[in-house]
Amino acid sequence: MTDRRYTAPMPDELRHRLRTGQHPARAVPCPHCKARAHSPCRLRKSGRLMPQPHPQRVAAWSQLIACCPECQVTPTVPCRTPEGWPLPDHAVHARRTTEAEETSP
Ligand SMILES: [Zn+2]
Ligand SMILES: [Zn+2]
């Protein structure tokens, strides 16, 4: 029996990173405007770049990296209703997005 104790300090300062400009959801492609990973979203009508990603992209990103505190699914699993149906439009629960934003590296 080995008794290994790892006392690595957990960095507690991951939070300010959301202010640095780019939304971490840019790491995934946008299912709405088809922007590629690391590219900004565009308005489909005018082609103008958007400062923030589409909500659908944030949802896709949240689904990829975070568990959902609301419906208790693991990362990559779509959110579902209490009856077990997927949410419409590939949406995720708001709490999952919050979770993703807080845990994003
Ligand atoms: Zn988009
Ligand atoms: Zn959920």
Structure description:
- The protein has 105 residues and is mostly helical.
- It has one domain.
- The chain has helices at residues 55-65, 94-103.
- The radius of gyration is 17 Å and the shape is globular.
- The model is unreliable at 10-18 (pLDDT under 50).
- It binds zinc ion (2 copies).
- One zinc ion (ZN) binds next to loops.
Ordered list of secondary-structure elements with their pairings:
Elements: H1 55-65, H2 94-103
Helix pairs in contact: 1-2
Bound molecules: zinc ion (2 copies).
Residues 30, 32-33, 35, 41, 53-54, 57 line the site of one zinc ion.
Beta-strand portion reads under 5%
Shape: globular
Question: What quaternary form is this?
Answer: single chain
* Biggest sheet descriptor: none
Contiguous helical run count: 2
Return the domain count. Answer: 1
Let me know the average pLDDT.
85
Distance between the termini: 34 Å
Radius of gyration: 17 Å
Broad structural category: mainly alpha
Count of DSSP strands:
0
**Helical residue percent band:** 10-25%
- Name the ligand types: zinc ion
State the main characteristics.
105 residues, mainly alpha, 20% helix, 0% strand, binds zinc ion
Offer a quick outline of the entry:
With 105 residues, this protein is an all-alpha fold. Helices cover 20% and strands 0% of the residues.
